Protein: Guanylate kinase
Amino acid sequence: MHVLRVIQRSQILRRQLHAMSSTKLPIVVLSGPSGAGKSTLLKKLFANHPDTFGFSVSHTSRNPRDGEEHGKAYWFTNEDEFRKLIGEGKFIETATFSGNLYGTSIQAVKDVQDQGRVCILDIEMEGVKQVKRTDLNETCTFIFVRPPSVEELRKRLEGRNTETPESLAKRLAQAEKELEFANTPGVHDKIIVNDDLAKAYGELEGHILTKIRGDS
Structure:
C-alpha cells in the first residue's frame, strides 16, 4: 500500500507540474550565493513592474528573524510538518541549509500564476537541480547572479553584521559550490555578474522581458 501511495502521489505531482508548465507565462528561477545581491535586484524589479511579477513564497523550518512576516518572507513551519508535506508531494523542490529545510510548494507557484503574473523563484543550487528534472524545466528560464569575486562576497556578508564566524564560513563554502556549479555548460540561461547594480539590473530586466515577449 505504501508503494501504491507513493506512485499515486508521483502521478498527481506530474499532472500538477504539467498543468503549470502549460501556461504561456515563463517561470523565472533565480539563484546565486547569499550576498550576491539577488534580493536587491528583485526588489527593484518588483518596484518597476508591480503588476507583472509575483514572488513564490517558500516554506522553511527555521524560526522567523526580526521583521519577517509569515506568508511574506516565508511560510514558517516546523520540521515534522515540513517533512509531512514532502511526503505528500507538495513541493517542487526542497533543500537543506544550516540544518533548516527550505522548499517551494506547488501551491505557491500556482497562486502567482492564477493572478496572471510571472512567477519568480529564489532558490538554492539543489533546488535548481530538482526543478530541471521536472516538467517545468522547459517553462523556466534559469538565471544565476554571482559576485565579482569570493573576496567581494566575503566583504558584503561581513558588512551585514548578521553572520557569526561559523555561519560566514558555511556561506562562503556553499558559495564556492554554487559558483562551480554555475560553470557547468547549459545549467543557466543567463549568468549576471553583480559588480555594478544598475548594469546587473539592466541585464536581469532585459533577459526576463525578452522571455515574456517570446523573442527567444
In short: The longest strand covers residues 91-97. Confidence is low (pLDDT under 50) at residues 1-8.
